[in-house]
Amino acid sequence: MRAARFTSRSCMLFCRSSAANMNPLPINWLLSLTLVFVVSEAGLLLHKTDVLIYNDLDGGTDLTLHCKSKNNDLGIQHLAYRNYFEFNFRPSFLGNTLFYCSMQWNGTMRWFDIYVEGRDVSRCIRCL
């Protein structure tokens, strides 16, 4: 009886054929999970953006503002004449960050889009 010989080449061929017959579902799932993790962590690499709102209304008028985004409510702020309110955040890697504020002074109320990523991301890192 002749014994079978396994050389490194025959083992390599065996390993390749075994891998070819494996179910690709777990490997695809693992690669997808890794991709989701990398994309989630990519947000940590984006620069911080600072927004500063300065009250320079005529006549020394006080300003009341309430700023928020889809995920963050920054609360109501009362700004005396020549005071400011500042906040910062990391823009979304999806490119859809939006902060808007209601502003009230002398009985007037208006809404403003304070930061729109598509409009502002290339203009500034510290938006004034």
TrEMBL record:
| Main location class | secreted
Q: Name one GO cellular component term.
A: extracellular region
Q: Where on the tree of life does the source sit, at the highest rank?
A: Eukaryota
Is Signal set as a keyword in this record? yes
Q: Kindly indicate whether the keyword Signal belongs to this entry.
A: yes
Which Gene Ontology terms describe the biological processes this protein takes part in?
Answer: rejection of self pollen
Q: Which InterPro entries does the record match to this protein? A: Self-incomp_S1
Locations listed in the record: Secreted
Query: What does the UniProt keyword field contain?
Result: Secreted, Self-incompatibility, Signal
Q: Which Pfam families match?
A: Self-incomp_S1
Q: Which family does it belong to?
A: Belongs to the plant self-incompatibility (S1) protein family.
Q: What is this protein called?
A: S-protein homolog
Q: Which organism is it from?
A: Gossypium klotzschianum
